[in-house]
Write a structure and sequence with these properties.
This protein has one domain (about 25-135). It is α+β, with helices and mostly antiparallel strands and about 140 residues long. It has 2 helices and 8 strands; from the N terminus they run ααββββββββ. The protein is globular and about 40 Å long. The chain has helices at about 1-20, 25-30; strands at about 55-60, 65-70, 75-80, 90-95, 100-105, 115-120, 125-130, 135. It comes from Streptomyces triculaminicus. Keywords: Signal.
Length: about 140
Amino acid sequence: MTVQRSLVSSLGAVTLAVMALLGPATAAEAAGCAGNTCTGKNPHSQGCDQGADVLDRAIPSGGGPRVELRRSKRCSAAWARFDGPANENWRAKLDIQGRKPVIIHASQSYAAYTTMVGTSSRYRACIEEYGGGWTCTKWH
């Protein structure tokens, strides 16, 4: 029994020593991209959605789902996201100044979101109004 305790204690000490050498994983290490290298990439698969902030929200004037403008400080990137499941007839977009917007359709199964843009660009989130036109957040 004493030998087993000694072995377990030694293994624990070795594990702690290895962890100390490797150092703690930082948030930046967990992200798969940063800034303009995030443009066109999926915020979830790149780890940018973890700890992201909601900068602004847009709601169509006649009612409907909200679209959020989300930003990851860790990744220096932004994207538009429906705040929850919604009828697939709803469309939202990430409007990027000087570039083609990224348009998405809502999903009844999950909160749909656009790909990202680096935060060095100006951007806003918009939701399509029933019958045409767009309601948008302010530019960021």
